[in-house]
Amino acid sequence: MEQYVLPNSGHSSNPEASKLGMWLFLFTELLLFGGLFLVYMVYRALNPEAFLIASYELNITMGTINTVVLLTSSLTIAMSISALQKGKKGLALYLMLATIAFSLIFMVIKFFEWNAKIHHGLFPGMEHYQSLPHGESLFFFLYFFMTGLHALHVIIGAIFIGIVVVKVGTDEVTGDQGTLLENSGLYWHLVDIIWIYLFPLFYLIH
Amino acid sequence: MKAEEIQHITSFREHFGTWLALIILTVMTVTISVFGADLLSLTVVTALAIATTKAIVVGYYFMHLKYESRIYLLMVGVVMLLFIVFLVLTIFDYVFR
User: Fold this and answer.
1) What are the structural domains of chain A?
2) Which domain holds residue B12?
3) B58 and B75 together in one domain
4) Residue B13 sits in the same domain as residue B58
5) Which residue of B has its CA nearest to A19?
6) For chain B, which end, N or C, has fewer CB atoms within 10 Å of the first or last residue's CB respectively?
7) How many CB atoms are located within 10 Å of the residue B53 CB?
8) Is the Cβ pair A15, B72 closer than 8 Å?
9) Which of A178, A187, A141, A135 lies closest to A160, judged by CA?
10) Do B56 and B93 fall within a single domain?
11) Which residues in chain B have Cβ-Cβ distances shorter than 8 Å to A85?
12) What count of CB pairs under 8 Å joins A to B?
């Protein structure tokens, strides 16, 4: 079937150009989080003891489970691309839905973690937070800001994959025309990579 | 199908291998942190080395850099270099202020 694309319709029919554009966007995301990591690094170097004490407040078990959940979701989205390329549309759809399910599990665990911290009054602006030593309040500010921004990316990634699920269902995205699925996969892997750094920096360094 | 659209299909076995490597690295980093306090403390350097290994594995296999044209690897390299420049300049700023 011939496909016609108007010059200024904003849709590219060139898969290579779409992929290149996606990578360029991912680079801006990397530098956004990279800047935040620099902030973390500087404040950690200035307040080593406070960061150490504050990091004991975080739940390593929940953090580890969330790491495994995100790594496994990266596996399922990568497998869904292979499945679709092999013409196994049903399997690809199940794997994409599994990825969305893993993202929900991640968000539920994150909710309970945040809930516990907020219950202890550690959210920026709360009474207990105000009474913390300066270094510890910096740690919790960065914790909420960086994991919050990451969680926002998880939500956006899950919605992106949800849109691709619909398009695969209607055969708009297929094994030969699978750029949108591949791009959603790239975005999802980036979200995974950011968590790979957040996890040890906030939870593990004792 | 046009010639440039011929794509490499990664096998499920390779995906599972990648996943297993990532899980092993995660177990390593958690074990060092929780149980190995007297053996080898998880310093920033160890933690970042393991995290960077994981990020490279994700990028190379899951994000398909292994099979993409070299221009993608080059671009990733340039962005990493840019970040390292920011990092080093920030460190110099704080150390020699």
Assistant:
1) 28-204 (1.20.120.80)
2) 1-66
3) no
4) yes
5) B72
6) C
7) 16
8) no
9) A187
10) no
11) 7, 9
12) 110
